[in-house]
Amino acid sequence: MKQEKAAVLEHQNFQGEYRILRLAAPEIGPQVRPGQFIHLQIPGMGDRILRRPFSIYKASGEGVSILYKPVGRGTEAMIPLRPGAPVDLIGPLGNGYPELGKGRTPVLVAGGYGNAALFLKAKELPLKGVAFFGGRTAQDILCVEEFKALGWDVRPTTDDGSLGTKGLVTAAFDPWLEQQDANTLELFVCGPNPMLKAMGDRAMAHGFTAWLSLDKNMACGVGACLTCVIRRKTADGWEWARCCKDGPVFESREILWDE
Amino acid sequence: MNKPRMEIKIGSMMMKNPVTVASGTFGYGPEYAELVDLNRLGAITVKGICPDEHVGNPTPRTFETRGGMLNAIGLPGPGAKGFLKKYIPFLKQFDTPVIVNIWGKAMEDYGRVVELLDDEPAVSAYEINLSCPNVKEGGSAFGTTLDMFSRTVELVRGKTQKPIIPKLAPNVPNIGSFAKAAEECGSDAVSIMNTMPAMAIDIETLKPQLANRFGGLSGPAIKPIAIKLVFDAFRACRIPIIGMGGIFEPEDAIEFMVAGATAVAVGTANFVDPGTLVRVIDGIETYLARKGHAAATEIVGMVKA
User: Fold this and answer.
1) Under CATH, which architecture does the A105-256 domain have?
2) Of B123, B39, B50, which Cα lies nearest the Cα of B82?
3) pTM of the predicted protein model
4) What is the ipTM of this complex?
5) pLDDT in tens, A69-122
6) What are phi and psi of B181, to 5 degrees?
7) Hey, are the CB atoms on A225 and B25 less than 8 Å from each other?
8) Domain spans of chain A?
């Protein structure tokens, strides 16, 4: 974990409403493990003061890249960032995805640009398999060719049927699951929380492992403020676990979902 | 020119500079140890500890506002024994005094938590949280009624020889009377201020933004309130004041000192920029040197008003 004054290298449209921000961060870049995130201080936020967390899409000795969509005050304030602009980063943060278990078959499942958080894992995994990517429209399914180039069998789903199977990601996943030896599967999942819960429920019902990357509002990002807590099951009940420090990746059996 | 002396004293506790952290914004120390050199700090003030483990509030627990944030974390923590076991070995590695923030659900808890902690030499002082707006039991009631305030401080005073520092609530009609009462009950200093009770509402769902409905406002938005409270308290008591509320830059800390604070605490700014602490320490020193002061204590309460 480092705090680093980074500089914008590239910031442009990626696809549809999505944008890519590539940052020179030679201290943080080489430390990144798949599934970790950075905490970004966005310049020009004025009286909105807190950092914003972003999943890391790519990382190298040069720095890190993120994919994002302007959806709120923080991400909208990022739009004017030009190459050369200074940006303060803390990272890499969180635990990321674990190693693939022995004899397991990896599966990727993502909602929207959640697959950006899976890219480094997709690259690192010793085996490639099926990748289920869901989104509202074809514009919301990113990086298909990149994942294919890594050797993944990408199965898109869209709410409007503009790409792949029509429906939620489960519309493609569920029929596929019926053909599999479920307990050998190991899922790496990132996306909106209802999708994570849907995949977690299937993991528990069918006896496979699912690593879910949770998204909760954060303040500090380093485990101090206890904003981003979720309920984690214990032998005799539950305890708070911090998404930023103890997560953001949790195994489906650990999570006690708020109903 | 000689370097200005940065050391200050709170009762028997020596601090190598006037800068600590606001309880609850820095965890128990390890959370920030990779980003902040803990040996640089005047003191580490840890998150509130009560006698027993406490679970805290449901989520959402914080909400960003203009120039600040609301929090209603609800003081989750490992309890006194859990704290000693889990964090003291870590904290002992540093040449920095540890101020333990203590709180209770009932008055006797304040005595009990000190009994459990007091034999530990690495616990340097106690900050008494009498003003947390976010716990249903006790909490702010201890800090807003003078009689309960004094009885609680006296109870703690009777349990320890270490410095005790009541943390004052901002939402009282006369901060001076609480500062004076703290002094009369044997306190070594007072902390000013805790967060300001506050609320935000989502106009789409019509629900409060915090699960606890209300929270405490912190950050730059409250700084002018805190400056006045320190100014008022400085005129009402002779014990040192630890000033806090929206310190983001060295100039903010210096302003607190000029208003009457002997020491300062950086809070919400830790979340925004963990580099703030060292920047504030260095900035105070630079200011003192530039103004020709020999010691940090020389500027305390020097406001011309």
Assistant:
1) 3-Layer(aba) Sandwich (3.40)
2) B50
3) 0.95
4) 0.94
5) 999 889 999 999 999 999 999 999 999 999 999 999 999 999 999 999 999 999
6) -60, -40
7) yes
8) 2-93, 105-256
